[in-house]
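Q: Please design a sequence for this.
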């Protein structure tokens, strides 16, 4: 019996989340550096909502999500009316902002410097200034054993 695309995506998301639950904060940062954003969004939503996520990882993920698109909408309802396909990404960006500004992420061991330039011409809301402040800390190298957004130990399981 073959899986539907939805069932496959759900199993893939579960596989990734189970993997991330057992990662150290540094491994989560590395996972983001090797991430393929075609992978199920539930896994990065888990990272955005996890108290074990390092503040540097949260800031990295925020900017990887290209938040300028989310900030062109005043509200979630406006986004749903104009670009409903973007709902998962919008929710992740909102979660990251809320958690970052409320000091939800307690650890800050890893460095990240936000981009100096982004497309802000269509934005209706300003990205909070705190999300532009570079974080100092350990520089985390990109993973060498990731392929297509998966660590070596999961590559065979995703097929």
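A: Design:
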């Amino acid at each position: 019996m073959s899986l539907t695309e939805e069932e496959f995506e759900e199993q893939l998301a579960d596989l990734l989340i189970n993997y991330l639950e057992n990662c150290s904060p540094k491994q989560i940062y590395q996972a983001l550096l090797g991430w393929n954003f075609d992978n199920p969004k539930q896994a990065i939503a888990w990272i955005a909502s996890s108290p074990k996520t390092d503040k540097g990882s949260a800031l990295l993920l925020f900017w990887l999500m290209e938040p300028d698109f989310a900030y062109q909408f005043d509200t979630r309802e406006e986004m749903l009316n104009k670009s409903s396909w973007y709902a998962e990404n919008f929710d992740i960006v909102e979660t990251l902002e809320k958690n970052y500004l409320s000091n939800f992420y307690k650890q800050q061991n890893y460095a990240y410097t936000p981009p100096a330039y982004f497309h802000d011409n269509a934005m209706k809301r300003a990205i909070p200034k705190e999300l532009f402040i570079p974080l100092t800390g350990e520089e985390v190298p990109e993973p060498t054993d990731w392929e297509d957004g998966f660590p070596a130990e999961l590559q065979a399981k995703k097929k």
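Q: Thanks. Anything notable?
A: The mean pLDDT is 90. DSSP finds eight helices and no strands in the chain.
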